[in-house]
Amino acid sequence: MIREVVDSRVAATAVAFQTSIGLAGAFLAPIAGGIVVDQAGFDTAFLLAGILAIFGIAVAWVAPEPRS
User: Is residue 67 part of a domain?
Assistant: First the structure.
């Protein structure tokens, strides 16, 4: 999908950047979740995760389709 949106000359860089962001999120999410659980409890952590999930779904829902 990235290759549909960016210029072919920078497609490899764009894919690498997207992968890096995803890996950083996979690394940092459990750390941030643990901090939230320690500070506010599991209820708040799951509420925050649900809010972030709903926000992500809303952003994906309104995101424009790439032009072909």
Answer: no
pTM over 0.85: no
Give SS3 for 14: helix
Q: How far apart are CA 23 and CA 28, in angstroms?
A: 9
**How many structural domains comprise the chain?**
1
The domain of 13 spans: 2-62
Residue 68 lies in a domain: no
Encode the chain (68 residues) as per-residue pLDDT tens digits: 777 888 889 999 999 999 999 999 999 999 999 999 999 999 999 999 999 999 999 999 998 887 76
Count other Cβ atoms within 10 Å, centred on residue 27: 9
Q: Is residue 53 part of a domain?
A: yes
The answer for residues whose C-beta is within 8 angstroms of residue 45's C-beta and 6 or more apart is 33, 36, 37
